[in-house]
Amino acid sequence: GWIKVMPRGKQINFLLDNDVYQTRRFAFRQEQPEECLLVASDSAYFVLAEMKIGTIERRHWTYYSDVTLSFGQGFISDNWASGGESSLSILSDLKYFINYKKKTTTWENSFRYRLGALKSGSEELSKNEDKLEIQSKVGVKAFRHWNYATQFDLNTVLFNSYNASDRETVIANFLSPCNFTLSLGLDFKPKDNISLYLSPIAGQWVYMRDTNLVAPSRYGLETGKKFKSDAGAKIELKNQHELFKFLKIDNHLIIFSSYYEQPEKLTLDWRLTLNFKINYFMQTSVYANAVYNQNDSKKIQLKQTLNLGVYFRF
Asked: pLDDT (tens digit, 9 = 90+) per residue, 185-203?
């Protein structure tokens, strides 16, 4: 069993592990003998140590990490009548969270990195997923479930990404591009697993570290420019729900609307993850990502992956 400090008041909660029950040791009350069987008053083994009263303190910092390693494999023999190619895919999803809470102040920090590779047929192993995301949000309680909040977001890739058609043209690499946003607004949090962030003041920047290999025009920058700024309004919704004890839904939606480049500058990024728990270590996950950004493409971009892997939480 373990002891949990309750969030309100000076209370503690005693929790027992599974399959632990309280039972009567005796069917009837046992009488205690009046004389003591052991008599050794002068022995050090029978001297009680001085009792010290400890204090219960609330822990303001909490941190944990989620690690998921997924694999996919398909085999087709050379004489398979319907044709096709064998394939192998690997995906790692690393998350780390550091949160601080004291009285009316909160500070939430999250780091996430997804890296995946795919090999199909005789082709070499190539990267099909590479995304680093860093988010930090500071909030101060305003009223009821609303907090005054300021938030910083950053996302980029770590390794070279190549065009799928020729596998030679570099379309992205580390900090090229690097998208980061700084915003100020209100955060609605009725529960720990739901957050609706409304920001009427949001600054968005795009930075290109390498303009020799990566074309700036691909990400809405003028030729020869390494930096582009914009301002607008931002809406971000995060919610997590657990259904039937084996299905966990993780939803994340980001909408940004520019004040200067309407209506072209309306961007949308929607990520949905479904985790089907098999046992304590294994799970099947479905990840879907829809992006609408007219700087990159006039159409909605879609990505979807289905993986079976192992899951660890520290």
From this structure: 999 999 989 999 999 999 9
Lowest mean pLDDT among 35-44, 145-154, 187-196: 35-44
Give me the pLDDT at residue 199, please. Answer: 97
The CA distance from 141 to 131, in Å, is: 32
Asked if residue 171 lies in contact with residue 162, where contact means CB atoms within 8 angstroms, the answer is yes
d(CA 248, CA 311): 13
Residues 6 or more apart from 30 whose CB is under 8 A from it?
none
**CB-based contact 247:273 (threshold 8 Å):** no
Q: Helix or strand or coil: residue 100?
A: strand
Gyration radius of the chain's alpha carbons: 28
Question: Are 291 and 272 within 8 A, CB to CB?
Answer: no
Q: Are the CB atoms for 138 and 122 separated by under 8 Å?
A: no
Least confident residue range of 6-15, 141-150, 236-245, 295-304: 6-15
Identify residue 174 by its one-letter amino acid code.
F
Could you tell me the sign of the dihedral formed by the alpha carbons of 38, 41, 43, 47, in that order? positive
Residue 51 DSSP code: P
CA separation (Å) from 183 to 202, 219, 253, 280, 288? 4, 21, 16, 38, 26
- What's the pLDDT tens digit per position in 40-80? 555 555 566 777 887 777 889 999 999 989 887 776 667 66
Closest Cα partner for 284 from 298, 269, 274?
A: 274
Distance from C-alpha of 224 to C-alpha of 219, rounded to nearest angstrom = 13
Neighbours of 172 (CB within 10 A): 20
Q: Which amino acid is at 184?
A: L
Residues in the chain, overall count: 314
